[in-house]
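Fold this sequence, please.
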Amino acid sequence: MAEAADHYLWLVQLDIPEELEAEFNHIYDTEHAPAIAKVPGVIEVQRYVLETPVAGMQKYATTYRVTSPDLPQTPAWTAASAKGQWKTKISPHVVNARLSMFRAMP
């Protein structure tokens, strides 16, 4: 496993229309996250849902611990992200997406 200062955290926050939440969670858990987790350089994938609603805060968040800040822009990541139903059934309906890359501090 990478040392703390040798990895990055890719934080993806988003909302999805309420009527698509069940399908979104199913596809994310069974297709999207497992495909991304197999990309070389991905250390860990963890999903979160906002415990208490906060105005202006996205409901869903996923953290990806990765070995390079460029990993989400690589062909391997892009190909993994295009697998399954994510690209056609979910991605077009994602709203309020916020993507942030953090460098681990020593």
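The chain is about 25% helix and 30% strand. The first strand starts at residue 8 and ends at 15.
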